[in-house]
């Protein structure tokens, strides 16, 4: 690496090398620069979206289930550190009498009631799935998703994503595959789309940038070589899809549309007119495959998923990472409707391709022709040969249950989930204090998650120092100069908007990962750096 001194002559080269890296890799380099910043300022890394809070009660409940599970296991074999299998018969009753009146235990007992009363589970079946799941004493079975778990997660997704539309129908018809975070879901989806010839090199897919950068990077890889068409939503439209953009979907050569909703980094959920426009778009292009990544849904107070609007065409991706502060656990899920375009497209593949894929999945199914796309994703995720040991680890699946159940129990008691409100209030306050320090207005709208801000540095420059200065700033420096100096002088790490498909001069601030007090400071330091540039401009003039 070249010198990291801001005034070094090799700075240009360093910034050019930096610009070749992926977005998240650039941020890692900026963190290193920030650690040695020239003003000895505290490092404020608002680059990553990792939250700095956790949900407590489900974690504690998980531990209690482990304790109970060990006690249960000793009923069959009671060695020193060795115990046997659990027995299902009577387990719910024994679990209930094990529970005390601590908050975690009270939650567990409400969750058991919820399962039996609201979800219609047999008490022992449900208790045994939870207890054996946390003990991890058996391979995930069925491999795609545990039985009660699918119902629990479906009720959770219905509550947070469907805005009251078609709830029962979709709960009954949505098939789920819990995965190692949304990260794994995304990787699995692209791979299985390719293996099943649903996407091929040269195919057109559409993205709505600015978007989570992996969605820009993956299609370009040699593995896929897709042609991406960028719909480019913009801030003045509040990141909605433009009419021309929706028009672009009306082309049978466009195979897939990839959405992040609410968007990252735009952070605003799609509006009702946009959802309606997408509904019309699939009428005109009925074989369009839509992938929607809804990981930020709970941060918008008004939200309806594209999956809810066009379930036949849509593959849903969700992650617990952000809301519950569980990025280390790796908890995601993908969902597809029983009746869906992916299966239809596979059934209609040309003969030669169909024979090829039938042969591939014959290893895992006696009736490969009718193997659902979602089950193909499970098989592909373990390279076909390891289908019998596929599936997300059972402790992870139960952790997903426990977060889902905490939400379901909360809304059964009041009409709002107070935990979701606490998390939203946290990011909202940070968003407001950042904007105040930057001197920009809040966008207060029920669809704005406020999880990230996209800050237009040139616009702030123009507002405070005039247009001539801001044009100079925009044209005299490398793309990453501002972020480089912000890190190396003032210890503040932000992410470059260009990496997400935004215009130059736009930077992303995460409202998730720093203490509240950091946000006014970030605003001040951005302003300070702009002042430094302004001084330089005056001198050069
Ligand atoms: C954070 C994030 C993910 C990753 O989710 P994990 O479950 O932690 O893998 C996926 N998509 C978007 C849009 C994200 O912001």
How would you characterize this protein structure?
- 49% of the residues lie in helices and 10% in strands.
- It has 3 domains: 8-49 and 419-540, Aspartate Aminotransferase, domain 1; 57-138, Histone, subunit A (Orthogonal Bundle); 147-401, Aspartate Aminotransferase, domain 2 (3-Layer(aba) Sandwich), CATH 3.40.640.
- α13 (306-309) links the parallel β6 and β7 (314-319).
- It has 541 residues and is α/β, with parallel strands linked by helices.
- The chain has helices at 11-18, 23-35, 57-73, 91-98, 103-117, 123-135, 147-161, 167-173, 181-195, 214-220, 243-248, 272-284, 306-309, 321-324, 341-347, 351-361, 373-381, 394-413, 418-438, 457-465, 467-475, 481-490, 518-540, and strands at 44-45, 174-180, 204-207, 227-230, 254-260, 289-293, 314-319, 331-337, 452-456, 492-493, 495-496, 506-510.
- The longest helix is centred in the C-terminal third of the chain and has 23 residues, at 518-540.
- The protein starts with 10 loop residues before the first helix and ends with a helix.
- It has a 7-stranded mixed β-sheet with strand order 2-8-7-6-5-3-4, sandwiched between helices.
- Bound molecules: pyridoxal-5'-phosphate (PLP).
- Pyridoxal-5'-phosphate (PLP) is lined by residues 49, 181-183, 212, 260, 264, 293, 295, 319, 321, 327, 332.
Task: Outline the fold blueprint.
Elements: H1 11-18, H2 23-35, E1 44-45, H3 57-73, H4 91-98, H5 103-117, H6 123-135, H7 147-161, H8 167-173, E2 174-180, H9 181-195, E3 204-207, H10 214-220, E4 227-230, H11 243-248, E5 254-260, H12 272-284, E6 289-293, H13 306-309, E7 314-319, H14 321-324, E8 331-337, H15 341-347, H16 351-361, H17 373-381, H18 394-413, H19 418-438, E9 452-456, H20 457-465, H21 467-475, H22 481-490, E10 492-493, E11 495-496, E12 506-510, H23 518-540
Parallel strand pairs: 1-10, 3-4, 3-5, 5-6, 6-7
Antiparallel strand pairs: 2-8, 7-8, 9-12, 11-12
Bound molecules: pyridoxal-5'-phosphate.
Pyridoxal-5'-phosphate (PLP) is lined by residues 49, 181-183, 212, 260, 264, 293, 295, 319, 321, 327, 332.
């Amino acid at each position: 690496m070249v010198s990291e001194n801001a005034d070094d002559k090799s700075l240009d080269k360093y910034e050019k090398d930096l610009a070749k890296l992926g977005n998240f890799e650039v941020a890692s380099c900026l963190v290193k620069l920030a650690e040695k910043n020239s003003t000895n300022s505290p490092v404020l890394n608002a680059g990553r979206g990792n939250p700095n809070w956790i949900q407590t009660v489900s974690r504690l409940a998980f531990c209690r289930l482990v304790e109970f599970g060990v006690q249960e296991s000793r009923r069959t074999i009671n060695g020193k550190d060795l115990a046997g299998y659990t027995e299902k018969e009577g387990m719910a009753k024994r679990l209930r009498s094990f529970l005390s009146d601590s908050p975690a235990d009270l939650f567990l007992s409400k969750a058991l009631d919820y399962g039996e009363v609201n979800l219609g589970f047999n008490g022992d079946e449900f208790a045994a799935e939870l207890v054996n799941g946390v003990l991890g004493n058996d391979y995930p079975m069925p491999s795609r998703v545990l039985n009660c778990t699918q119902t629990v997660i479906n009720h959770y997704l219905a509550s947070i994503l469907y805005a009251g539309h078609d709830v029962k129908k979709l709960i009954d018809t949505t098939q789920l595959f819990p995965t190692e975070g949304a990260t794994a879901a995304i990787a699995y989806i692209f791979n299985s789309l390719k293996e099943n010839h649903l996407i091929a090199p040269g195919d057109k897919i559409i993205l709505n940038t600015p978007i989570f950068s992996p969605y820009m990077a993956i299609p370009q890889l040699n593995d896929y070589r897709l042609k991406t068409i960028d719909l480019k939503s913009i801030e003045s439209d509040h990141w909605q899809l433009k009419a021309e953009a929706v028009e672009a979907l009306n082309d049978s050569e466009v195979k897939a549309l990839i959405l992040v909703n609410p968007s990252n980094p735009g952070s605003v959920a799609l509006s009702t007119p946009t959802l309606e426009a997408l509904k019309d778009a699939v009428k005109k292009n009925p074989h369009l495959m839509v992938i929607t990544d809804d990981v930020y849904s709970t941060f918008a107070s008004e939200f309806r998923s594209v999956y809810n609007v066009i379930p036949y065409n849509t593959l849903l991706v969700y992650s617990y990472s952000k809301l519950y502060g569980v990025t280390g656990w790796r908890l995601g899920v993908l969902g597809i409707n029983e009746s869906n375009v992916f299966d239809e497209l596979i059934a209609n593949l040309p003969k030669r391709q169909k024979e090829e894929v039938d042969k591939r999945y014959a290893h895992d199914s006696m009736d490969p022709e009718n193997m659902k796309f979602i089950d193909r994703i499970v098989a592909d995720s373990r390279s076909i040969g390891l289908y019998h040991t596929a599936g997300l680890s059972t402790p992870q699946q139960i952790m997903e249950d426990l977060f889902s159940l905490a939400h379901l129990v909360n809304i059964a008691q009041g009409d709002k989930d107070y935990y979701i409100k606490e998390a939203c209030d946290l990011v909202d306050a940070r968003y407001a204090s950042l904007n105040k320090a930057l001197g920009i207005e809040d966008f207060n709208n029920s669809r704005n998650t406020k999880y990230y801000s996209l800050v237009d540095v040139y616009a702030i420059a123009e507002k405070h120092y005039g247009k001539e200065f801001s044009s100079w700033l925009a044209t005299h420096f490398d793309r990453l100069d501002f972020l480089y100096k912000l890190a190396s002088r003032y210890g503040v790490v932000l992410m470059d908007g260009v990496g997400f498909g935004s215009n130059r001069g736009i930077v992303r601030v995460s409202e998730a990962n720093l203490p509240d007090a950091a946000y006014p400071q970030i605003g001040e330091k951005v302003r300070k750096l702009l002042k430094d540039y302004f001084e330089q401009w005056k001198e050069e003039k």
